[in-house]
TrEMBL record:
Organism: Clostridium polyendosporum
SMART domains registered for this protein in UniProt: PDZ
Keyword Transmembrane: yes
Protein's name according to its UniProt entry: Type I deoxyribonuclease HsdR
GO biological process, one term: proteolysis
One matching Pfam family: PDZ_2
Transmembrane segments: 51-76
Molecular function in Gene Ontology: serine-type endopeptidase activity
UniProt family annotation: Belongs to the peptidase S1C family.
Keywords: Hydrolase, Membrane, Protease, Transmembrane, Transmembrane helix
Length: 406
């Protein structure tokens, strides 16, 4: 399986935590009002490896083929959603919008919500090899997800499957099945994986309307905090803010803020309303001394229009890469580009002549320096298309023709 990863910045803060697995990779995001760090908790490591000078500039492993990570600062461009209700005039010159509430017969007990949704909630386990120039390091990670259709497609966070070379899904019953990554949207931190074993899915979630959320509504989170030992854990809270807009590096991100407990391993799992509908994807939490009950979920309405695209396989090159940024290029007398750390056997890249140590500088006739730039160009093509890729090899430009496949 291809390895999926990305190059995020992790220099400035310690308080905002991506809550998926036990990874060592760190993520950061400086918010306008305070310093935060999106930190991926430590992964289990098997083996030890030295880091070569070339990769000391913050370069992380990624795969072009299956998925390409988009390097740089972690941020999400999301639309700010608001709730519109028909209003009446309360006093002269003042428009009053009365709140709407779920009818008593629509709301379920917490137990009934869990019975309805939990069969569709899964644990997503990953295994990856971080390639060094001397020896590899094996890493394992655990996150959550939920089944969205009868074909066994599972929605989760991108950072849950980032770096994965092998993927397993554990059903609510405890049965472990094989799965593979279908597609992803790194900018929105979304990914879809598919169960590949021939099984009948135990359940499918119902998607709700996150635009209709109001502060104070009760919500439930289900997932696998801290790993498989706590699979199917249920926590309950309220909506602290239905549209918490955060600005970072000029980019606005909208989350649902909740005080339902969210811990490492919950990432990718569902946030559920009182009628048993998924209204968010649990993604992050704020941590620090004196801070309690600040979890953040991606509103499901921001995801709905992406599901059709995310359910289509991404085109494959089959190479493991490292991004060479401006600082690393200057320090090592290189050009900015995408350095080939490894080439998958029998892949389109191998068949087209790409070699380990090549530096991709042009894709489809356009200069590329970052993984997301290459990915966007690749997404314009379909399976079977041939693209021209220019690499630097031993200081010379080499033009190659690569046939893309799923």
């Amino acid at each position: 399986m291809d390895n999926y990863n990305n190059n995020f910045n992790a220099e400035n803060d310690q308080n905002f935590v991506i809550v998926n697995s036990n990874k060592e990779d760190k993520f950061s995001n400086t918010w306008e009002t305070a310093d935060y760090k999106i930190v991926e908790p430590k992964k289990k490591r098997k083996g030890r490896g030295k880091v070569a000078a070339l990769i000391t500039g913050g370069l992380l492993c990624a795969i072009i083929g299956g998925v390409i990570g988009a390097g740089g600062v972690y941020y999400l461009n999301r639309k700010l959603y608001t709730t519109d209700v028909n209003g009446t005039t309360a006093t002269k010159g003042v428009n009053y919008d009365p709140p709407t509430f779920a009818k008593d017969e629509q709301a379920l007990t917490t137990t009934d919500v869990v019975k309805k949704v939990s069969p569709a909630v899964v644990t997503v386990s990953t295994n990856s090899i971080q390639q060094g120039l001397f020896s590899p390091t094996e890493q394992e990670g655990v996150g959550s997800g939920f089944i969205i259709n009868e074909e066994g497609y599972v929605l989760t966070n991108f950072h849950v499957i980032s770096g994965a070379q092998q993927l397993k899904v554990t059903l609510n019953s405890g049965k472990e099945v094989n799965a593979k990554i279908v597609n992803y949207d790194q900018e929105q931190d979304l990914a879809v994986v598919r169960i590949t074993d021939n099984i009948k899915v135990p359940g499918v979630v119902e998607l709700g309307d996150s635009d209709a959320l109001q502060a104070g509504e009760e919500v439930i989170a289900i997932g696998s905090p801290l790993g498989k030992e706590f699979v199917g854990s249920v926590t309950k809270g309220i909506i602290s803010s239905p549209s918490r807009v955060i600005e970072s590096n000029g980019k606005k991100t909208t989350f649902i803020q909740t005080d339902a407990t969210i811990n490492p391993g919950n990432s990718g799992g569902p946030l559920i309303n009182s009628t048993g509908q998924v209204i968010g994807i649990n993604t992050a939490k704020k941590v620090g001394e004196g801070i309690e009950g600040m979890g953040f979920s991606i509103p499901i309405n921001q995801v709905k229009d992406r599901l059709a695209t995310l359910s289509k396989p991404i085109l494959k090159l089959g190479v493991q890469v490292r991004e060479v940024d401006a600082n690393t290029a200057k320090q090592n007398n290189l050009e900015e580009g995408i350095w080939i750390a490894d080439v998958e056997e029998f892949s389109p890249a191998e068949k087209g002549g790409i070699q380990r140590g090549d530096l991709i500088i042009n894709f489809d006739g356009q200069r590329v320096k970052k993984l997301d730039e290459l990915n966007k160009l690749k997404e314009k093509h379909k399976s079977g298309d041939t693209v021209k890729i220019t690499v630097l090899r031993d200081g010379k430009e080499v033009n190659l023709n690569i046939k893309l496949t799923e």
